[in-house]
Amino acid sequence: MDVLEGARISWRNVREHKLRSTLTTLGVIIGVAAVITFVTLGASLQQDIVSTVAGGNAATMYVTAQTPGESQLPSLGGGSVVFTQHDVDQIRELRGVEVAAPESGIAASSVAYNNSSVGRQWITVSSPGYFRVRNLDFVSGRPFRLGEREVVLNRPATEMFADNLSVGETISFTRAANDEVVNATVVGVVAGQDEGTVLGIQGDGEQPRLYAPTDPYYERTVLSPNLRTRQLVYGRVLVTA
Predict the structure, then answer these.
(1) What is residue 221's DSSP assignment?
(2) Sign of CA dihedral 120, 127, 61, 87
(3) Which of 196, 192, 193 is nearest to 76 (CA)?
């Protein structure tokens, strides 16, 4: 059949059956519009869910060693204390790993500054790369250095005392385990995401936070099964891919 003849027959059928043609056209238009609408909504919803769960930092992973609970999410406080320094070094050497920062803490019975003190505090210990993994921006100062008696505070921690703390000031904290008093120099102040937000779960709001290097403050060790020597041991490793 000639193409032109086929087109004429089709047009004649359309004119002779206007209602049927109109309904067919409407069905096609509605169907296409519905598909486009649901695809757009689905993509937007997916992006929103990914952004919420990832907290704007999808490349960051919180590595723990424990049996997951019913929620299938790791504990915010970390798992069993099983990651030795050897384990951390091995993770850093994996292909695709940009930063691997161990995380643990020191319980302080008190923190003192300028003849005043505040009660029990938890001091997070890690490596200088911790601030990159956590996306913590420095308002002033710099990250601490391993091997130095230095600490970094967040903004609320600078207001713990009557006289606000600033970079260059010296504070002291008392270890809860043995009542040892340790001095440290404040070398930086950070502002950024709160420690209470992990894996998209909101915490109780921004609280005073103190960060210190593992060396020289952290002392918890365990016998490494790989090296057969005692090494520092951590409950969690933060990894940026």
Answers:
(1) E
(2) negative
(3) 196
Q: How many CA atoms lie within 13 A of 7 on its CB side?
A: 3
Q: What is the pLDDT of residue 103?
A: 94
H/E run at residue 108: strand 99-113
pLDDT at 64 over 80: yes
Q: With 0-12 CB in 10 A as exposed, 13-18 as middle and 19+ as buried, what is 91?
A: middle
Q: Can you read off the two tokens belonging to residue 160?
A: 């713990």
CB 192 within 8 A of CB 135: yes
Q: What is the CA radius of gyration of the chain?
A: 29
pTM of the shown model: 0.68
CA angle 82, 86, 87 (to 5 degrees): 50
